[in-house]
């Protein structure tokens, strides 16, 4: 298994490719950057087109849910989008917060930041900004955000405990998040964990659903709700790109469930942990 630095380098490389190619190619390729199978992202993505603020140029087809639809964003809020990509969720959030709110997108792939900034400039948005940074150590002061959203990103991050600690730090007391992500019930085939494009495609980086929800509880969040839970069915032709016939039969027999979940949780108004900044160890 690759170490954390190698995983981050892999994800950065893959998503740089994705940002540099047409959206149609992302949909028709496995995990957005290769051509070895038909459609991993499109079997995960939900339809954004009916949400106000949707901009097709910013939608790279990389999501697995609609967190902004569930995020209880209000006019005037400060919203942070983790792994903001081309700006899709950020622009939908901007439609809700209005001219007096603020939206900040964070992504650690420079090409994605360039793309999102170009989209924001073309749309004339003055209260949407995109910052280059690692969501394990966000370039934001503590108690900054009313709402944090993220769409199919945290499964790409090796240290999920650290990310949720950072989410807690950056949220204002009384703030909340809504995050869509990929989780699993059961065990994925061991060989999948070594397949780079399946990691970048949000499959082999996923962890057990119970572990994922447990990390959120450990970070100090309260009133957690799973807002949506959708099974992801991987077609046989995609399985065949990575498993032989016997392994496919074994995979199906093991009843592994891959799911997209959207999770909501709150940071209570009183925080006794004194999370004071990015260097704080309290989270």
Principal-axis shape equals: globular
Classified by CATH, the class is: Alpha Beta
Number of strands: 8
The domain count comes to 1
Level of helix content? 25-40%
String of helices and strands: HHHHEHEHEEHEHEHEHHE
Number of helices: 11
Distance between the termini: 26 Å
Q: How large is the share of residues in beta strands? A: 15-25%
What's the Cα radius of gyration? 18 Å
Describe the 3D structure.
The protein has a single domain (4-266), classed as Vaccinia Virus protein VP39 (Rossmann fold), CATH 3.40.50. The chain has eleven helices and eight strands. Strand 1 (78-82), helix 5 and strand 2 form a beta-alpha-beta unit. The longest helix has 16 residues, at 4-19. Strands 1, 2, 3, 4, 5, 6, 7 and 8 form an eight-stranded mixed β-sheet that branches. It has 283 residues and is of the alpha/beta class.
What are the main properties of this structure?
alpha/beta; eight-stranded mixed beta sheet; 33% helix
Task: Provide a compact summary of the structure.
The protein is 33% helix and 22% strand. By secondary structure, it is α/β, with parallel strands linked by helices.
Q: What layout of secondary structure does this protein have?
A:
Blueprint: H1 4-19, H2 23-28, H3 41-44, H4 67-70, E1 78-82, H5 88-97, E2 102-107, H6 110-123, E3 128-132, E4 145-151, H7 160-170, E5 171-185, H8 196-200, E6 207-208, H9 209-218, E7 222-232, H10 236-239, H11 245-253, E8 257-266
């Amino acid at each position: 298994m690759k170490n954390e630095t190698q995983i981050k380098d892999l994800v950065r490389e893959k998503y740089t490719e994705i940002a540099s190619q047409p959206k149609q190619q992302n949909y028709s390729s496995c995990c957005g950057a290769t051509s070895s199978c038909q459609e991993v992202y499109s079997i995960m993505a939900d339809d954004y087109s009916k949400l106000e603020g949707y901009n097709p140029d910013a939608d790279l087809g990389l999501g697995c849910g609609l967190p902004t639809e569930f995020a209880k964003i209000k006019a005037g809020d400060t919203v942070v989008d983790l792994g903001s990509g081309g700006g899709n969720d950020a622009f939908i959030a901007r439609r809700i917060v209005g001219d007096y709110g603020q939206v900040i997108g964070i992504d650690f792939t420079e090409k994605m930041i360039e793309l999102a900034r170009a989209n924001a400039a073309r749309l004339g948005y003055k209260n949407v900004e995109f910052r280059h940074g690692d969501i394990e150590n966000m370039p934001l002061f503590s108690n900054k955000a009313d709402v944090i959203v993220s769409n199919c990103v945290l499964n790409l991050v090796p240290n999920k405990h650290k990310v949720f600690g950072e989410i807690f730090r950056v949220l204002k007391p009384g703030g909340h998040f809504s995050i869509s992500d990929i989780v699993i019930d059961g065990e994925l085939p061991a060989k999948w964990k070594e397949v780079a494009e399946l990691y970048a495609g949000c499959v082999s980086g996923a962890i057990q659903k119970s572990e994922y929800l447990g990390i959120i509880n450990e970070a100090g969040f309260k009133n957690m709700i799973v807002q949506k839970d959708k099974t992801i069915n991987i077609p046989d032709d995609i399985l065949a790109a990575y498993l032989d016939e016997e392994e496919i039969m074994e995979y199906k027999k093991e009843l592994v469930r891959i799911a997209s979940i959207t999770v909501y949780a709150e940071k209570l108004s009183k925080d006794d942990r004194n999370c004071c900044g990015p260097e704080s160890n309290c989270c």
